[in-house]
Amino acid sequence: xxxxxxxxxxxxxxxxxxxxxxxxxxxxxxxxxxxxxxxxxxxxxxxxxxxxxxxxxxxxxxxxxxxxxxxxxxxxxxxxxxxxxxxxxxxxxxxxxxxxxxxxxxxxxxxxxxxxxxxxxxxxxxxxxxxxxxxxxxxxxxxxxxxxxxxxxxxxxxxxxxxxxxxxxxxxxxxxxxxxxxxxxxxxxxxxxxxxxxxxxxxxxxxxxxxxxxxxxxxxxxxxxxxxxxxxxxxxxxxxxxxxxxxxxxxxxxxxxxxxxxxxxxxxxxxxxxxxxxxxxxxxxxxxxxxxxxxxxxxxxxxxxxxxxxxxxxxxxxxxxxxxxxxxxxxxxxxxxxxxxxxxxxxxxxxxxxxxxxxxxxxxxxxxxxxxxxxxxxxxxxxxxxxxxxxxxxxxxxxxxxxxxxxxxxxxxxxxxxxxxxxxxxxxxxxxxxxxxxx
Length: 439
Hints:
This protein is mostly helical.
């Protein structure tokens, strides 16, 4: 009997396993095995069919919201475009007013009214939910309208700037002509000065007018400072010049002008502008010196002279006049302290409007004094006493109202008069009537 070998058994088992695996693969390919997967796919198809109406509704909602958003954007675009049109029309209206253009004004006015009506219509459309059916086209048209309006606005602004530029150019030309005229006058004056090495008496009158203007400028600053410090201006004027009838309330400022002139011109008749005695010999020898002081200080600013020469005669003059003119009580009332006075005492003037106005006035008075002592003839100063009759030869009234009186009297001298050789400069006075006549 023949025995079975182990090798043959193993080979038969391998063949059987390979045949079984092959059969399984064949069933997968023919669709016999994945029955579960087919069932799963079948169920998914059923769910898709059931959910088809819901998907359609979602797409409709999205489309509706998109159209509403576009319509709202179109409405806003039209709103902003209309506002730009109103702005452009208003700019056109302003431009037509200067220079005056009736046709342009009417046209611009109609455009403004039309655009305002459009705004009202847009408001009603928004409240009634009446949106544009073609928002895409509306967006493009609104953008075009807004760009046109902006372009029109910029065009009008450009025309305005051109007009302003032409105006400024004409002002520059006018100022250049005035500047050239002043330069020519200065050159002519310099030629005369160089030829004669002295000043004409008419120059004294010119500089006197400049001096009086600077004095009134300082008085105006001082009165404004009084009002700011809650001072009673009329009581202060009464303290300086009591029992004076003023035709107008603002005439009280002449009392302050009188006080300032009294301090600033005190010692004017002396060569040193102080209480020191003078002699005719010193006057003759110092005539050229006064002229040199005038020509040296005239082009300079007062602060520059004080800074460069703190111990000069002019610096001492400014310091002395300020300390006499501005009382400590007045300064404390103006500024709340005495710091300015302390600085002036050591030769320093703070850069305030009050000190600047004072220095300008002091410079003018000093220059006038230099001119007066630059002449070969003698210059003198005079004023009129209270109660004197008015004389047109020696006096000039600062208030025209007083000239209507039959016999006006001098209340006080506002600005003193001057006599330079044969030239007489009238003093300025305030005329008033007595208390008995007023009663």
